[in-house]
Amino acid sequence: MLVQSGCSQSSVGPIIQKVCLMIGIPATRCMSERTVQRAILEAGVAAKPQLAHEICGTKSLTISSDGTSNRHIDYVSRHIALKVPSYSDGTPKIVNRLLGVESAKNHTSETQLEGLKKVVDDMSNLYEASPLSKRHGNVLTPLTFTRKAKGMSGDHSADQKKLFTLFLGWKHDNLLVELGEDAIVEPRLADLVAAARSKVLVEMMDEAGGMDAWHELSVSEQESREAAKKFDLVRVLGQGVYSVLTEEQKRELDFCVRGGCCMHKELNSVKRGNTAMMSHWAEIRVEPPVLLANRDNSVTLQNTQSSRPDHDGTLTAAEQRALNVSARGGVKVCSLAGAIFNHKDDKKGQQDTYRWYMERARRDSTTRNSDSPHPRHSFLTTFPDTSNTRYHSYVDAAVVILMEYDFILEFMEWVRLLKEKSVLNHMEKNLVTGLLCWKTMTENSVLVFYGVAITYPYAAAVRGPGTENLNVLELGGLHERVISHIHCIINNPDLLISSHASYKDGTLDGKPWRKPEALAAVHRYAEKMPYLREMLLAFFKGTVPVWGRFTEEYAVGGTIYQATPKERDAAWMPSTNDANEGSLGTFRLHARHKPRTSMHQYNALAQVRRNDTEAFMETTYTEQDEHFGMKVARAMDSAGLEKQRRNEIIEHHESEVLSKRRRIERRNELAAKHAEKLSSANLVLLDEDGLMKLTKDQLGIQLDLHRERDPSVPKKGSRSKAQLVAAVLAAIVSMPRIPDVTDCISLQQDAGNRCDEFDEGDSGDET
């Protein structure tokens, strides 16, 4: 408890000793830091048998995961959701248990699945060796784990979708093995077992070179080969048993559904809506919001500004690149405000100056406007964090900017006057420029509209108070209402734009406006934003395809749509991936403040805190379990696990480097051979019939010869012969005109005349 509360491990012993002395208990000995570490590991050892014990006692479970990088190393967090009895009163409840945060060699789907398999294997082996398993007669195997797994959730990235596909393959393979193992001991399936053994025996004989070669093998060699083929036998048996099951039985065994994080759906809808809104300026042929280039690009682009009437609009390569990488619009202003008012580096930006100033400004405003329908409360608030990718962070920032618009401009002027030369830096100037651009503020106002109409009601529905037991599989109706409400606003923007708009029609849930002060500010400034309606329509229309694409799992006829209430209950999954997002964030903070903590030490602390392990130990553990935990913790402490973890990652990177070097060497060898071929080849100018007589390799060489002259000539690629002929023919046609015989004669005569002129009049170097 002391370590989890932030106490350093070296201070735990002295603190306990001091507390004992204060209450009159003599404590002559002091707990060492090493003892503290082992005590933490003992609790971590208890967390793994706890998970295995709970999995054995549940009917189903679901898996969730997420990944991130920290200090250039990939990490993966995993949770399992299952129903277990409460350790306080025995009432069954759904819990989301942390499997752990683990480093990974890379972020591929295959590596993530291998990591999950390793976690399950370690948990199973430790549980099997524990007194707890023997006392209750339970055994957890990977076959049991995958059979009970009914769902997997995460974000909507391609690697997570592929991970689910790979997991389904692992689950099905384990199912066949489990069915095959059961069939071997089932008397009713003796004929099926005999047929499978016969099939595997034939395969072994074929591999040995025939029946005679098989019988020439020694008995020990035959037994060795049979043992190696045992897995194939079990799988063949399992496939045979599976093939005769009814469709209902197959569905029950195979049922596994994927759910996507709801807040990632909303996050992507905001991103796509903003993209559609930004591109709409060009579609309606209106000058877009002011460009907010950084300091270097601003210098590059200064000669292209409209202040130069003599500029013809032609951009150099450097100017075009600077223009392409420079941003503009509402989200850019929100990002600038976040970097100035709440930078992720505490030493940068205004930080506390902004917070304290705004507290004072709100208090003064409340005093002056005590009769305001929306009085401002005087308290310290932090500007939304836009330095990290967080749910609706830009919507929150837009809301604050509109609510505190006048105060922020006053604050920036206050900051300018506080400076020695009374000059804002480039980022601060960009922020003020963006705030004074009403096209930029139009985009921020649209973000406010989307926030009060969709974002905030949706977030309250999927992760607000009282949604802890909400099943993501039951949210198909909610997402239908989201899309329907967006269409309602598209058909009638006055549901939001009108100053008399009612929350009953404007919000997704029909509940009072969230952030009514921001909405009132938008209505107050609406006259300065003539394109507000068009931008709102563009934004909301842009979100429709995203909501459709990110809610495909709820499609009519899909797995979730066809699932029975019983199946949905078995595949309960949280509506968001907050558990994994939070555990990764907690790990990064812990690693920043306590970088010496080993991975298994951190997981012990995190699992004990997250999984209610202390309550499990109090109600389930015996003295035997405690001794077992001490023994395993000592073995872990002396095994050098942290060093092994680091070495595995470096060895993997070394193998990748070696593989890439070999590929480069091979590519260079092939390039050298190809260059040699080109140097010995001649360019041939043939018509289509002549080119058709050449091979594909010869045509490819001709194409490469033309590319040496003209880089725009296409590469060979995977073209058919007809396509290669057409490409070579086009290259021949595009060549500069070849002089004919008459041209050559005239050039020769002209050259002779010039030489005669030089002979008659000129001499020396010029000649």
Outline:
With 767 residues, this protein is of the alpha/beta class. It folds into seven domains: 1-31, no CATH class; 37-155 and 577-638, no CATH class; 169-256, no CATH class; 262-286 and 439-575, no CATH class; 290-302 and 318-436, no CATH class; 640-680; 681-759, no CATH class.
Question: How would you describe the overall organization of this protein?
Answer:
- The protein has 767 residues and is α/β, with parallel strands linked by helices.
- The chain has seven domains: 1-31, no CATH class; 37-155 and 577-638, no CATH class; 169-256, no CATH class; 262-286 and 439-575, no CATH class; 290-302 and 318-436, no CATH class; 640-680; 681-759, no CATH class.
- The protein is 64% helix and 7% strand.
- It is built from 36 helices and seven strands.
- The strands form two sheets. A five-stranded mixed beta sheet has the order 3-2-1-4-5, with helices on both faces. Strands 6-7 form a two-stranded antiparallel ribbon.
- A hairpin with a 6-residue loop joins strand 2 (73-85) and strand 3.
- Mean pLDDT is 86; it is low at 741-751 and 753-767.
